[in-house]
Design brief:
The chain contains eleven helices and ten strands. With about 325 residues, the chain is α/β, with parallel strands linked by helices. Helix 1 packs across helix 9, helix 4 crosses helix 11 and helix 6 crosses helix 11. The N terminus is likely disordered.
């Protein structure tokens, strides 16, 4: 789980690198970077991969990049290909994140992210809980009261079953002493259909990243009840779940991985490339433009984080009856 210490250390590491002169201009350029995206073009992982490509090119850290998209089952189709067919391939990275961890467990995949070489956690996005603008629920206390009266009477619109949105709903139910399996979760294929259900008052509430709902909240068509961060997010007048007595925090992270079988020197080179990129102004500008939170973590800390995420998410999915 992201802590204030993680964020402070990430910021300090970036500042120290810049102060010492280890900026992107000094990084050894890679002729062609292979970027493996285990999802369809246009989605969050694909956007992350193509943003990384653009920033690395702008920083002259790479000459070119080739993006390979292999969609299906939240990454469960692509990961075996990356682990087996890309094994030992130099100058190659895969974009993935928390959604893949859950999808692999839910799909009972024979492979998982611990079989790759973790390079860096890059971005994070907190979840928000929203209701239609006409909803009687003004805060999480009101919503939870209805949930406790009849857990099935509160319908939650979100993304794929077992994904980040579903996991947060399960955590909220469990934190309130309820059976997560009984939560009335309605899975949608994307943010558009989920928003339509909310705006049409077809569901009680919705769960997604802030970016999905921000415009509708600003327009007053949706009301944000809570955010899943550990503390309030600057610029957003949205109370946290913890502020409202619900001991839950969660963020949807994305990061980079190398294929198994690469040499230690190759891993060090790729990690340095990512650290230099994350310290660059071009990357910081993209974070601001896209409402992404920079949560850089590399080395053993990130490797340990991936192991702990597998354990934590598997336990949550078992609570939901999906593992």
């Amino acid at each position: 789980m992201l802590t204030r210490r993680d964020m402070m250390l990430s910021t300090l590491a970036g500042s120290t690198a810049l102060a010492a002169g280890f900026g992107p201009a000094l990084a050894q350029a890679i002729d062609t970077l292979q970027i493996f995206v285990p999802a369809a073009p246009g989605g969050g992982w694909d956007q992350t991969g193509r943003t990384i490509e653009a920033v690395l090119k702008a920083n002259k850290q790479i000459g070119n990049a080739q993006v390979t998209n292999v969609p299906g089952a939240g990454g469960a189709v692509g990961l075996p290909q990356f682990v087996n067919q890309w094994k030992g391939r130099q100058n190659s990275v895969m974009v993935a994140g928390m959604v893949m961890v859950g999808a692999l467990i839910a799909n009972k995949s024979p492979v998982n992210l611990t079989q790759t070489v973790p390079l860096a956690r890059l971005t994070g996005e907190f979840e928000v809980i929203v209701v239609p603008g006409s909803s009687p629920h003004k805060d999480m206390k009101s919503l939870v009261e209805q949930l406790k009266k009849d857990v099935g009477s509160v319908s939650w619109a979100g993304g794929s079953a077992g994904g980040t949105d579903h996991i947060l709903v399960g955590m909220i139910a469990k934190a309130n002493g309820l059976d997560p399996k009984k939560a009335a979760y309605v899975a949608f294929s994307g943010g558009g259909p989920a928003q339509a259900a909310l705006l049409g008052n077809q569901v009680t509430c919705g769960v997604s990243g802030w970016g999905e709902f921000s415009e509708q909240v600003k327009a007053g068509k949706l009301r944000a009840l809570a955010i899943s961060s550990d503390k309030r997010v600057a610029g957003l007048d949205i109370p946290t779940l913890k502020e409202q007595g619900i001991d839950v925090e969660l963020f949807n992270w994305r990061g980079l991985f190398a294929p198994p079988g690469i040499a230690d020197a190759e891993r060090a080179k790729l990690t340095k490339m990512i650290e230099d990129m994350a310290a660059s102004q071009a990357w910081k500008d993209e974070l601001t433009k896209r409402d992404w939170m920079g949560i850089l973590q590399t080395g053993k800390a990130y490797e340990d984080y991936i192991k702990s995420e597998n354990t934590r998410i598997e336990a949550i999915l078992k609570d939901l009856g999906l593992a």
